[in-house]
Amino acid sequence: EESVRLRQEAIEVAQEAEVTILFGGLPESYESEAFDRPTMTLPPNHVKLIKAVAKTIPSSKLIVVVTNGSVVCMKEWIDDAGAVMESWLLGQAGGRAVCDLILGRANPSGRLAQTMSLAKEDVPTGAWFPGEHHQVQHREGLNVGYRYYETYQKDVAFPFGHGLSYTKFEYQNLVAKVVKDTE
């Protein structure tokens, strides 16, 4: 099978490389409008590739870059990688931007705009997904996004606002001054 041959080729290249950067993500068929994705994970061949390469090299030599338009659950493979970069949907200069970040020529400063759950069952609509007649029922009320995870004390993979940097920040003696008092 073609995917098995390509996976073996990737393993051989990774074993010779100083560092391996694997790109995995959601195909166009998962990212379209007017329907729900069949799963919250990466496609099976992407997961198999990550796990196969990870078995043959130290995790410190494996970087996984995820390209997608919506949250993916990484639980089944995240511990196999030394680093994971969420790049979302890359534009025409996305490859260069990812290289600049990995090589330290630019500082990653993005923060997550949503919470990333550990598994599909942990998301607010997990109990009702995929719904009936191709319709998801949003029954979570006010417990949308991070509020759901806080209310039900669910562990998450990455919380809203998470993001790492090459720099360490420390704030001290902050003072806020009211310039104009308005209602």
**Cα Rg:** 20 Å
Q: State the distance separating the first and last CA atoms.
A: 67 Å
CATH topology value of the largest domain: Rossmann fold
CATH superfamily of the largest domain: Glycoside hydrolase family 3 C-terminal domain
Structure overview:
There is one protein chain. This protein has 183 residues and is α/β, with parallel strands linked by helices. It folds into two domains: 1-109, Glycoside hydrolase family 3 C-terminal domain (Rossmann fold, 3-Layer(aba) Sandwich), CATH 3.40.50.1700; 111-162, no CATH class. The protein is built from four helices and five strands, in the order αβαββαβαβ. Strands 1-2-3 form a three-stranded parallel β-sheet, with helices on one face. Helix 1 runs parallel beside helix 2 (44-56). The mean pLDDT is 90. GO terms for molecular function: beta-glucosidase activity.
